């Protein structure tokens, strides 16, 4: 923590102001999600929460009283994890909003990495405040989860040509691939392309990467 504080103090004033504004916007998005996200407005949201309740209660993956594979499992499982530790349902929209913040921060880091310039961080507020992203972050739709997973995958892809990725990174990539497919299946193709691109770029490390990523995918 002291090291982080020292880094923040060393930031140029303009960068510190921009960071503070982004932090304020992130808190505003989370607060608005909690304020407007309940009561649940859409049948999809209610179904995700019903499945999550059933998982926490030990009834399994059920919808309308019967076993179901109608909804992809990643999002209800994540909601169930929060419900299991005592998070009230009224605060669940904050999970979506927090995931959007993670996606935005990752996009900012990616922008800086690609442009090799601090101005690349402007990608962060664009992702955070893009109307469709901001709207879905106030709902219990899985789009924020899938978006965060996909942006993190692209971030890993940007590093793939720099050298051998660690086993830990490969395991994380496999998990992100699984989350992308099992939260919003239509994003599966994009996630697969990114995963294969990383494989191609891992010269001399392809077997270890494929095995490690395959373990968690």
Automatic annotation (TrEMBL):
InterPro entries for this protein: LipidA_mod_glycosyltrf_83
Chief localization: membrane
Span of the signal peptide: none
One GO term describing the cellular component: plasma membrane
One GO MF term: pentosyltransferase activity
Membrane topology: Multi-pass membrane protein
Superkingdom to which the source organism belongs: Bacteria
Compartments where located: Cell membrane
The UniProt record lists the keyword Signal: no
Protein name as it appears in the record: Glycosyltransferase RgtA/B/C/D-like domain-containing protein
